[in-house]
Design goal:
Structural class: alpha+beta
Largest sheet: 5 strands, mixed
Number of strands: 14
CATH class of one domain: Alpha Beta
CATH architecture of one domain: 2-Layer Sandwich
Radius of gyration: 51 Å
Strand order of the largest sheet: 2-8-7-4-5
Number of helices: 5
């Protein structure tokens, strides 16, 4: 006996009805799930924190993306009265710029600057001359003249010699005048080569009657560019006393020169004259010794000699005596506080003062 399960017999009309019901149900389900609404984010809006988005109905659901806005050139904002102005450079005052300019005395062409007196100042004797100088061996000369009449002349020492700048100050008594008199203060140096005037600075002033009168001035021919006067310097010799010796100061006249320290040492190297030898004076420095160079830097005088300075048989005592007379001769100048001796550029084996 064959047993066979009966198949449900769906008629064509029934099939259409079932299909319609299923389609309506699908549409109903689809209508209940709202599609996500695209959100357009403006450029100026603040992006909120991200939150989980609802899961799509199925994996085949299409993702809707907002179209990116096309880039556009935004014109620069026009400043208004309430806009903050852009920063601008502040003009530098003229005085500030002037302070940044190197001073005139820093140039190689200028070696003397007179700060007092000032131009057209009215003064009485003594006339105070103040300034700075960069001159050899710190020697500064001056003259005060009214026309062809010389009222005062002389020299002073700066605090330092070239190549450094030194200060100088001197009070100069001038010859008496009966009425207010126009005069010129001249400050200068002398050439080591020929004694001619160099680095001349002139300041016009007026001298009034009264004040301190000086002794007669030493004549110098400043206007002609030559110097005929001499200067007096001191050198030191030795005299034997028992088993020791003493140092004796004697005067020398040297040419009026800017290199006054060199002139004094050269006078020392020349030794005593006949009259001084007859009085028992002598020099410990060997005959024929020559000075190779002398420079003064920051109060220290560096004197360099040739090898002849060491050629003696007096031992350490004579070497000490040599150093001492050189130091005493140089320390008469206010710019020298210390002396260093060398032989042909070397200080080894050279006794110091």
């Amino acid at each position: 006996m064959n047993c066979r399960r009966a198949s449900p017999d769906l008629r064509p009309g029934s099939r259409l009805l079932v299909t319609a019901v299923l389609l309506a149900f699908a549409l109903l389900v689809a209508g209940c799930v709202p599609a996500p609404t695209p959100t357009t984010v403006s450029a100026a809006a603040t992006v909120p924190a991200l939150s989980p988005s609802p899961a799509p109905a199925d994996e085949s659901a299409a993702v809707t993306r907002s179209p990116s806005p096309s880039p556009t050139n935004t014109p620069p904002a026009t400043p208004t009265a309430s806009s903050t102005p852009a920063a601008t450079a502040t003009p530098v005052p003229t005085a500030t710029l002037a302070r940044q300019t190197p001073p005139a005395f820093a140039t190689p062409a200028v070696n003397i600057i007179v700060t007092s007196p000032v131009a057209n100042q009215t003064l009485q004797s003594p006339v105070r001359i103040v300034g700075i100088a960069r001159v050899f061996e710190a020697s500064v000369s001056y003259e005060i003249a009214a026309g062809s009449r010389q009222l005062a002349a002389g020299f002073t020492m700066a605090s330092m010699g070239a190549p450094e700048w030194g200060t100088f100050q001197v009070e100069v008594p001038v010859a008496s005048v009966a009425t207010p008199t126009k005069a010129i203060v001249r400050v200068f140096t002398h050439s080591m080569k020929d004694g001619s005037i160099q680095d001349l600075v002139e300041v016009p002033i007026t001298i009034e009657p009264g004040g301190l009168s000086p002794p007669p001035p030493v004549p110098t021919r400043v206007g002609t560019g030559t110097a005929s006067a001499t200067r007096q310097v001191t050198i030191y010799l030795v005299r034997r006393v028992g088993s020791g010796e003493i140092y004796v100061a004697v005067s020398r006249q040297v040419p009026h020169t800017q290199a006054i320290g060199t002139a004094a040492i050269q006078a020392l190297l020349a030794g005593p004259v006949i009259e001084e030898r007859m009085q028992g004076l002598d020099s410990p420095i060997p005959d024929g010794t020559t000075l190779r160079s002398l420079r003064i830097v920051d109060g220290v005088a560096y004197a360099d000699f040739d090898r002849r300075l060491l050629e003696h048989d007096g031992g350490a005592a004579r070497a000490k005596s040599i150093a001492r007379v050189v130091a005493l001769t140089l320390e008469q100048f206010s710019t020298v506080r210390e002396v260093v001796l060398s032989v042909e550029g070397r200080t080894e084996g050279v006794v110091q003062p």
